[in-house]
Amino acid sequence: MRRHVLPAGRVLxxxxxVLLFVTPAAAQVPAGLSGSPPVTMASHPEDSRWWISGQLNxxxxxxxxxxxxxxGPNSLQPVGEQxxxxxxxxxxxxxxxxxxxxxFDLESAGGGGISEAVGLAGFxxxxxxxxxxxxxxxxxxxxLIRHVIPLSGRAVDVSRGPLELAHRExxxxxxxxxxxxxxxxxxxINGPGSDSHLQFMNWTVDNNGxxxxxxxxxxxxxxxxxxxxxxxxxxxxAEALMPKVANGLVLDWNVAxxxxxxxxxxxxxxxxxxxxxxVYVNHANMGNYAQAIADFRAGMGATPDVVATRRQGRRxxxxxENLERPIGAHARLFGRVxxxxxxxxxxxxxxxxxxxxxxxxxxxxxxxxxxxxFGLAAVSNGLSASHREYxxxxxxxxxxxxxxxxxGRETILESYYTAHLWRGLFGSVDxxxxxxxxxxxxxxxxxxxxxxxxxxx
Length: 457
Description:
Blueprint: H1 14-19, E1 50-63, E2 81-95, E3 100-111, E4 139-150, E5 155-157, E6 168-170, E7 173-181, H2 203-206, E8 221-229, E9 233-240, E10 259-270, E11 273-286, H3 289-297, E12 311-327, E13 331-340, E14 354-364, E15 369-382, H4 385-392, E16 410-422, E17 425-435, E18 446-456
């Protein structure tokens, strides 16, 4: 800081998704998929009070021409395109005591995405900043303080990394965080489907598309967060700042009128299953799709304008379920379902009101490439009735707007192969097949190909 293609217009019931994950399986955590130290260019001593590391991620994407009888201001362009994105991050941290740690991360996001990152709800490159005018000037990504309150004397091994400097922690503990962060550093995490540097690249494969998590244009916010951690379950909650306008860079510090409430319960009902259940409520200066449509029908404007209907105090609420489990020694299944009420405008992440996702990954042990990984996932995204009518009448969101709409679920099949080349150097190829781009049956399908070079320092 992300299978079977579902037919358009259908959502896989959550009970079916759960059944896929409760069939018998080996209890051990797959070797090479979790719990292993990262492969990096530089070593990171276990006994140091300090942490310094970095990463560089380069993604080149391209697509050819596709069927498109019309386009609007926020359409994916139907002519052939290619674009290169680049993101580098410097991670630093220091343990000021046995229980308190400080973190400071500097980042730069340069280059761009195809069609300047509009035209798709499930955009194809999670590294792309949606405002290309921001440029590649470095910015502060995280400034964080972490404090641990032990709740038991027994200690367990943990993985040392950019957001956790200890290698042993109390088995039961309360972790308190405050500062600048990305909410998806903590919420909706999924082992096989959350890492755009080594795994999938699509926004709605790496994250729950219906989770409109509080963030500025670059994906960060200020928040206070608490995690109650036990061996079998974790409860985490956060209060975070919302942007002043949809997809905006400036955050609203008046928490009485604008904020994001987040709560997630993570449980480990068996040794081979992880379930994360998320609920959230966003409060912000949001527009309302139904009011924008009513104003348009009353003769106010040539097209509906949700921005003109913004009012302080409006809320969006949503829920999500996130599951992962190993299959044998070297493979994992994962899935997500998500829903939000979809009455008020999509504000921070992307334009999705309901989503369902299934996927799997596999290490290369079978072909003697234990450091390699192959992944396959499918996601189907949908809109609320008022959101789709708004777009059909010519309204614009911050991601979408073809001028009109013949609605169909936006369905994406993505597959990647990541090869470990040397030490902290990785290369990937990726393909994404997108049906009904921007929820429009009149456009597409389109295939987006990608190559990625990733370096961990």
